[in-house]
Amino acid sequence: MTLDCPQKALPVKGRNSRKNKYIGKSVTRLEDKPLVLGQGVFAGDINLPRQVYARVCRSPVAFGKLLEVETAEAKCMDGVVGVWVAADIEHLPPIPFRETAVQGLSPYRQPVLAIEYVRYVGEPLAVIFAETQQIAEDAADVVYADIRELPYQGSAKDEPGIFAPGLDTEPVVLEQGYGDFDAAQLAADELIELNLRIGRHSGIPLETRGALASWDPGRQRLDMYGTTKRPHWNRDQLAKMLGLSQYQIALHEPHVGGGFGIRGEIYPEDVLVCLGAIQLGRPVKWIEDRREHMIAANHSREQDHLVRAAVKQDGTILGIDEILWHDQGAYVRTHGARVAGMTIGLLLGPYKVPAYRAKAYYRLTNKTPAATYRAPGRFEGTFVRERLVDAIAERLDLTSEQVRRANFIKVDEMPYARGLSALETDVVIDSGNYDDLLSKARKAFGWERAEVEVAERRARGEAVGLALGFFVEKSGLGPSELVRINVSTSGEIEVVTGAASLGQGMETAIAQITAETLGVDYQKIRVVHGDTDRILYGFGAHASRVTVMTGEAARRAAVALKQKAVNVAASLIQSEPSELEITDGVVHSIKQGIGSIKLCEIARHLEPNSPTRGDFEPGLFAEAWFHNKHMNYPYGAHIAVVRVDQQTYSVEVEKYAITYDVGRAVNPAMIEGQIIGGLAQGIGGALFEEFKYDEFGQPLSVTLADYLMVSAVEMPPCDVLILEDAPSPLNPLGIKGAGEAGVTAAGAAIASAVDDALQRPGLVQQLPITPQYLSDRILQYDTEKNNR
């Protein structure tokens, strides 16, 4: 299949590359100085005169008929300036989700405040506005909700129940596939079946959610300060909900204490803060506490899988049949059915599978609603697929490496059209050499030596295991990105983008690309982002898209700006444009004896009233779009060495390595940092983190004492090998995204390593691998083995 290719990818390191000044260099991050100096400004740090504080009253019941919300006592308290229930904001529509081809989801959107029913513990019932945070909290304590409890639905594998009259809890069943699995099954030597489960996780950023909104009645203008990964989309949807023009709202992004996919969506609290500012005529601030965050911010991951593979005796996969039960929680939030869709659309990873049949039961339960969390659908799908590879190897008396190599998509088959879709785009794998990366990963880790060491330790009685998980990511989601670059008369270079910064280092990466293209010092560049006032269009930060999409748009804008600067300079210093270059912000001739001129001086000559402007348009600026129809697909491998305590069944990850082909690395140190940070979350999902509920739907994981997370103690040493062997043909720099590589295969690699440590192939069928689960599972496994 032919992919739309804007131009041939530029050379990369190790392939006759030109000498790069910034791209490919691990330069110091630009965004870190204020944070290191304690000068960061987060949502909680922002205050405005006359502001009031919001506190949300939440349902204590998982599912029930909402008969009444009694607020009279709260309204009478000194310092309370407003109390709302659903009837007070009945003009507000439910919270929208993003455009999707999936039909039938609209009735399942979440209202801003509960109407008629409550569907999870933590659902907003009312909101208090008060002069201080303490008064707001005290007032919330005296709000009483009369709720008639209804039967709790806690599993997506249960038959659909009642959502509301005329609606059940299965909004949609997604199906994808190609080929004939039934025929593949008939032709197979073996049929291998697994039941697998992934628990319920979330991002749990260091900074909880927060927002501050202010309404200017004179200008009829609303400003909101707070995290948003899709600032322009959020602005437009809030405008529609509030009955305003999109030009009457501006969103401003402060510093962010972690995003991970769950931050920056439109939540009920964002709408309440904005409407409160308009109706009360005073700024409204809301900051959630940690317990609220645990029960109200998006959850993710929870899925059950029944997967079958039809295989030949040599390990060749003829077909895969996948059934998924996806637990969406109580409502369809802004991502719609995207996580379930990505899971089945991207499940096959690096393998060529002639026949594939997938069905995803997308079901609601009485839990916190779910959406994306770093590597959504790929953490889950990689665990399922790689567990299947291990099971095939065990059944056929092969190694997992042999099974992988027998089924990898080959280099000469790229680009490889899957016949599947994800995020409303066709899955067409753009480039990759999976076989070669597997060899490099094993060599860099010293696989053969490690195998010997692990075997020797097991012989001495230790439960130690070694395993590998292979993965394919997706990145560079389009469809478009706009960047504008301005050069001031004082020499400041400003890059304005509608992307957002969630801590991933986007300011530095975009500055590096711009600086190298334009011929300036990257430290002279200021990247402006997350502010809808500064640029008309923007697509935020999600799906590992910023370096790919914003980076290429910035490169194109820099090319246009450079050309304008050179043309103006040529007219000023009496030279030909073709003879001019820009170095360190100075336009100069490649010939001796010709003058030079700084970019800031050119900007002064381009002032509207400058007598030397000539026929050039005023201002030294340029803007450019980058459009892209397909995502690109970076890939890699995780290798884990684990030790299982045979008394407590706790799992320690002793050593780890990740090899990742990023196409082209803009800043290798930042990529390594992203990967190691992601690994912490991957280990958390593999071993520790899970939201648990009791039989009545009460959440049991509401503090960080109950929801266990990885600390520095649990993090292993991790070697990262970044490769640039397969640049993407979809953008001239050949870049692929890097934000999620550390998460994706962690569950798969650690599960396989635990199997190896305990010498029980196929033991682990569920994440997280808690001591209790492992103890119970070993007993079950041994009983089944003895009964065979």
Explained architecture:
By secondary structure, the protein is an alpha+beta fold. It folds into 3 domains: 190 residues, Aldehyde Oxidoreductase, domain 3, CATH 3.90.1170.50; 332 residues, Aldehyde Oxidoreductase, domain 4 (2-Layer Sandwich), CATH 3.30.365.10; 151 residues, Aldehyde oxidase/xanthine dehydrogenase, molybdopterin binding domain (Aldehyde Oxidoreductase, domain 4), CATH 3.30.365. Helix content is 28%, strand content 24%. The protein is built from 19 helices and 31 strands. The strands form 8 sheets. A 7-stranded mixed beta sheet has the order 3-5-1-14-11-12-13, with helices on both faces. Strands 9-17-16-15-10-31 form a 6-stranded mixed beta sheet. Strand 28 and strand 29 form a beta hairpin. Helix 9 runs parallel beside helix 18, helix 13 runs parallel beside helix 14 and helix 16 crosses helix 18. The longest helix has 28 residues. The chain is globular and about 95 Å long.
Q: How many domain modules?
A: 3
Report the C-alpha radius of gyration, rounded.
Answer: 28 Å
Largest sheet: 7 strands, mixed
Strand content: 15-25%
Helix content: 25-40%
Characteristics of this structure?
788 residues, Aldehyde Oxidoreductase, domain 3, Aldehyde Oxidoreductase, domain 4, 6-stranded mixed β-sheet, 19 helices
Summarize the structure.
The protein has 788 residues and is an alpha+beta fold.
Show the helix and strand layout.
Blueprint: H1 33-36, E1 52-58, E2 64-70, H2 72-75, E3 80-84, E4 117-118, E5 124-130, H3 133-141, E6 144-149, E7 162-164, E8 167-168, E9 172-178, H4 181-187, E10 190-198, E11 210-216, E12 221-226, H5 231-242, E13 249-252, H6 268-280, E14 284-287, H7 290-296, E15 303-311, E16 317-327, H8 338-345, E17 355-363, H9 378-396, H10 400-407, E18 416-422, E19 425-429, H11 434-445, H12 447-459, E20 464-472, E21 480-487, E22 493-497, H13 506-518, E23 525-528, H14 546-573, E24 580-583, E25 586-589, E26 596-598, H15 599-605, E27 620-627, E28 635-644, E29 651-661, H16 668-688, E30 718-723, H17 741-744, H18 746-758, E31 766-767, H19 771-787
Parallel strand pairs: 1-14, 10-31, 12-13, 16-17, 22-23, 29-30
Antiparallel strand pairs: 1-5, 2-4, 2-6, 3-5, 7-8, 9-17, 10-15, 11-12, 11-14, 15-16, 18-19, 20-28, 21-22, 21-27, 24-25, 25-26, 28-29
Helix pairs in contact: 9-10, 9-18, 13-14, 16-18
